[in-house]
Automatic annotation (TrEMBL):
This is Sugar phosphate isomerase/epimerase. Keywords: Carbohydrate metabolism, Isomerase. Pfam families: AP_endonuc_2. InterPro entries: IolE/XylAMocC-like, TAT_signal, Xyl_isomerase-like_sf, Xyl_isomerase-like_TIM-brl. Residues 97-338 form the Xylose isomerase-like TIM barrel domain. Gene3D superfamilies: Divalent-metal-dependent TIM barrel enzymes. Signal peptide: none annotated.
């Protein structure tokens, strides 16, 4: 890269570059932050100058329209929970909403309704608290899309009452979806997934009567293989698989009118790295590679929400990936989000980075929220 190229790029994107350097991003991530995702990916020996790459990165149709740029509040959970009386940084829902709105976000996903009791509004984990939260959302031009709450693991009068309250709060907040950050079951056994599917079909119908879509959010384990065949162990459980993955089976067993999924695209790539073979009924190992995009394309309307979490490919790590801010990793979000299928504008990508909070830099999670928003805004087809 020539010095004049660096100068031209720096002048165009000085603010993201400074933020990237402040956060200690590496050289490749620096190029991504200062030039856009496309330029960073294409930056190989023999290609056009960095300045030319930067221009190309800002042409074309937006992959994520402005109104669809979202964030799950788990990413900034430290800011939500800290005490404004002891911190100079944005603290509590009201201040964080204001900051996210300033950055440019239009959608949020809740990760519960707890904040410091000293923050404005105090304890807002109630129906009345939801009404206050809604006023702050509206004042900042933010739309709540969903929440990672608790879905009943058993159906009783008490759990259904709690679920109905969950739906009431969601409606007050203007949500279209309610969900959980947990798998329908942590088991790998077919019988347990059958029971979970029946329960979710029931709850999904109940959610729909409240004008809501019920969704499950998953990490890599749910894309592992279902134990549904082969010899039984001493506990009477299956020990082998027919090759179907747990969530694929769940999609088959649940009603597409009532039950939906939120794919965490990072963790789906972890599943692609980890869950590559299964033990068949005859004891042989069968290779079966996972394609996250193909799963979505097969039933695009089952995935109204995504977690747009980015990462560096790290085959040396157990999970094969390491989280990064959006646009600074190796996941091809341009292709993924442009190729999901389904109605235009149907999908809602929520940026998440589990590792955004920092004890050394209390401002880090919101700084990364701004950097990641900038990268979402520059992503083009």
């Amino acid at each position: 890269m020539h010095d004049n190229d660096v100068t031209e790029v720096d002048q165009a994107d000085e603010a993201p570059r400074q933020l990237a350097r402040k956060l200690g991003l590496n050289r490749r991530q620096f190029f991504a932050a200062s030039m856009g995702v496309g330029a960073a990916v294409a930056l190989t020996p023999g290609v056009a100058s960095a300045a030319g790459q930067a221009k190309a990165a800002v042409s074309g149709e937006l992959v994520i329209p402005r109104g669809k740029r979202g964030i799950i509040l788990y990413t900034v959970r430290d800011a939500i929970s800290r005490d404004p009386a002891t911190s100079p940084y944005a603290s509590g829902f009201k201040a964080v909403f204001e900051e996210l709105s300033r950055i440019g976000y239009k959608q949020i996903e809740f990760a519960g309704f707890r904040q410091s009791v000293n923050a404005p509004g105090g304890d807002v984990n109630s129906v009345e608290g939801a009404k206050l939260l809604r006023t702050w959302l509206d004042a900042n031009g933010l739309k709540a899309q969903g929440n990672h709450g608790s879905i009943p693991s058993t159906i009783t009068p008490e759990t259904l009452t709690a679920f109905d309250t969950f739906c009431e709060v969601a409606n007050i907040l203007g949500m279209k979806h309610i969900g959980t950050g947990s798998d329908p079951t942590s088991s790998d056994q077919k019988a347990d997934w059958d029971a979970a599917a029946d329960r979710w079909n029931f709850l999904g119908r109940r959610a729909q009567r409240n004008g809501l879509r019920l969704y499950t959010h998953n990490h890599d384990a749910a894309y592992g293989f279902l134990k549904d065949s082969g010899p039984l162990d001493e506990a009477g459980k299956y020990t082998a698989s027919s090759g179907i993955r747990r969530l694929e089976y769940f999609l088959q067993r649940t009603d597409p009118r009532y039950v939906f999924l939120e794919m965490d695209i990072f963790w789906a790539h972890v599943a692609k790295f980890k869950h590559v073979a299964y033990t068949a009924a005859d004891g042989s190992m069968v290779e079966d590679l996972f394609d996250p995009l193909a799963v979505v394309q097969a039933q695009p309307k089952r995935f109204p929400l995504f977690h747009a979490k980015d990462g560096d490919s790290r085959p040396d790590l157990p999970n094969g990936w390491e989280m990064t801010p959006f646009g600074l990793g190796d996941i091809d979000y341009r292709t993924f989000l442009s190729s999901t299928g389904g109605p235009s504008g149907y999908h809602n990508p929520m940026w998440e980075q589990d590792t955004a909070p920092s004890t050394e830099n209390p401002a880090q999670s919101l700084q990364l929220a701004e950097l990641s928003y900038d990268m979402m805004a520059t992503l083009r087809k």
